[in-house]
Amino acid sequence: MSKGTYAWDHLSTDSAQLLLCNLQPEIVARSKTIPRDVLSNSAAVLLEIARLFSLPTTMRVVPEGDTAPELIPRLRGSGFAQEKLRASASPFFDESTKNLFAQLKHKVLVIVGFATEAVVLIAVPYASAQGYEVLVPVNVCGGMSELTEQAALMQIRAAGAITTLVESIATKLAPDFTTGLGKSLFTIVKGLRLTCSGDGNNRGERTSMKTQTSVAWSEAAAHKSGFVTANGIRLHYLDWGGLGPVLILIHGGLDNAHIFDDLAPAFTEHFRVIAYDLRGHGRSEAKGPFDTTTRTEDLRGLMDSLGVAKAHLAGWSLGGNDITAMAGTHPERVDAIVYLEGAYDWGGPALAEAFKSLPIDFLVPASAMRSLAAYQEYQKTIWFPGLSDTSRFEAYVRDLVVMQSDGTVRARMTDSAAQAVLSTVLTNRPDYNKVPSPALAIYADTFFDVRNGDPAQLAKNLAWEQKYMAPFRAASIERVRRELPSVEIVKIPGTHKDFVFTSRELVVSAMQRFLGETEKGS
Q1: What is the pLDDT of residues 152-177, one digit of tens each?
Q2: Any idea of the CA torsion for 119, 121, 127, 131, to the nearest 10 degrees?
Q3: How far is Cα 281 from Cα 317, in angstroms, rounded to an integer?
Q4: pLDDT digits (tens, 9 = 90+) for 25-71
Q5: What is the dihedral of CA 363, 367, 370, 372, to 10 degrees?
Q6: What per-residue confidence (pLDDT) applies to 343?
Q7: Do residues 348 and 284 lie in contact, with contact meaning Cβ atoms separated by under 8 Å?
Q8: Which of 513, 366, 357 is nearest to 440 (CA)?
Q9: CB-based contacts of 67, cutoff 8 Å, min separation 6
Q10: Half-sphere exposure of 361 (CA within 13 A, CB side)
Q11: DSSP readout, 89-141?
């Protein structure tokens, strides 16, 4: 476990203190990566959180010519934060500041300010060397350019810090918004504006979409990445933060949690959103067995490790088996469930027969492994032909492979794990009769694309769809309706793999309405 992960695990109202650097009007105005009003607003929200929890806070300013340095208006007159003048590149070069931090004995240090490439970057390794565990909420940091800030953030993470968001810190400090303190926190965080420069994309790990396509690619999704030990293995998870009940997203077979990067931010206004890599997938430990029962206990262990008592679950494809099993085995831990092309009887004989006649070879050709670009093109051609903006699934594709020193790529998932997972797909059958949770089942039009791409391939896809998949889907829907009488069925344009991208607004609308109604009824 990295030191950064410890920082997140150890974050509490008893362990944290804040360091705000150079948040002065003339300095903040130089930010090129986040508008100064957004930066100012985020800083003010962070300060209010510190006030609510009585977190020790130090605000450092630097001289500005002949005029006395002054904080941005939203930070002035806090009445509880220490305000100190510094003339050195790092607050840790100043003995009085180091002594102040040491006296407080709060070992998780939250560092923010302008510029990310200067004071924040310099402060992080010195703080780590002094024994502090460091968090850097990037929506209270401004950079001098996208490129230089990305380089700085990479160095900051390499130094052991976790890059995160103000709202993620807030929900970690008080995850229950039904308490008096939680309600006060909710009111404060509602004032946070999650925006970024020009194009308006969420910027947690911060970059714009145009930067994603450059050589210096960096992930744009506004989430925290971490690891937990659950059911005896190491699981990788993504946490977008957010307000309200927890919504856990579970990906399909041979996929990874980044498949939800485009979808998850749509729910953070009302839910804390988490996704994770199933065992053997993505960055999680590849240790068997891989059956549904074992994966269910993985999910329960993940929830225990993250302090999640109960959650809504959404399962895509194979993930549908996991939410069915979790709701049936541990109903006290599950609120509502959502099947995202996941309410299928994958283990029945009909699918096994269909898989013998697939119109597309699931075995990735050697030509696709020659470079990352070749692999991305292969994924787009096979699974996402109707999606023009490849940046929306780039992190997902990148986590499917490992870059080699010669520029080629290899599959991140081992062949043995992939074979074991596919075996469970074709043998583990869901038991809907045990599920007491309200359920929404969303189905896509087709499994493979029948509208975009090579005409000859489209004809094969359509013939397979009509012969195998359409009757299999109809039979699956009939069974779900029979065994889950209160289930709501929604059909949405798109394919098994791309519908959450190509019909994102419809998916979000259906889920928000359903989960909202569930929350009102609970």
Answers
A1: 998 998 888 888 888 888 878 887 76
A2: 170
A3: 14
A4: 989 999 998 888 888 889 999 999 999 999 999 888 888 777 778 89
A5: -60
A6: 98
A7: no
A8: 513
A9: none
A10: 6
A11: SSGGG-HHHHHHHHHHT--EEEEEEE-IIIIIHHHHHHHHHTT-EEEEEGGGE
Tokens linked to 442:
């969303």
Helical packing angle, 146-158 and 121-129, nearest 10°:
0
pLDDT for the residue numbered 465 = 97
Beta pairing partners, 236: 227
Phi, psi of 445 (to 5 degrees): -60, -50
Rounded Cα distance, 221 and 212, in Å: 11
Tokens of 381: 């051609």
Report the C-alpha gap between 138 and 163 in whole angstroms: 6
The tokens for 516 are 């909202």
Q: What is the C-alpha separation between 354 and 342, in angstroms, rounded?
A: 17
Give me the domains of the chain, ranges plus CATH numbers: 3-189 (3.40.50.850), 223-521 (3.40.50.1820)
Q: Residue 352: what residue type?
A: A
Predicted local confidence at residue 214, as pLDDT: 31
Q: Phi/psi class of residue 454: alpha, beta or left (left: φ > 0; alpha: ψ in -120 to 50)?
A: beta
Task: Write phi, then psi, for 172 (nearest 5 degrees).
Answer: -70, -35
| Distance set, CA 190 to CA 48, 167, 410 (Å) | 12, 9, 43
Q: Given its phi and psi angles, is residue 453 left (phi above 0), alpha (psi -120 to 50 degrees) or beta?
A: left
pTM across the whole model: 0.62
Q: Two tokens at 266?
A: 């749509």
DSSP secondary-structure letter at 161? Answer: P
Q: What is residue 210's predicted lDDT score, i.e. its pLDDT?
A: 32
Dist CA 499 CA 388 (whole Å): 13
Residues of the chain with pLDDT under 50: 1-4, 193-216
CB 163 within 8 A of CB 207: no
Q: Which of 163, 62, 70, 69 is nearest to 121 (CA)?
A: 163
Q: Where do runs of H (alpha helix) occur along 309-348? A: 319-329
Distance CA 88, CA 98 (A): 13
Q: Does an H or E element contain 42, and which?
A: helix 36-53
> What's the rounded Cα separation, in Å, for the pair 259 and 23?
36
Using CA atoms of 69, 75, 79, 84 in order, give the dihedral in degrees to the nearest 10. Answer: -30
Q: Which of 313, 286, 295, 329 is nearest to 432 (CA)?
A: 329
Residue whose C-alpha is closest to residue 44's, from 74, 5, 68, 11: 74
Answer for the pair 493, 503: CB distance below 8 angstroms, yes or no. Answer: yes
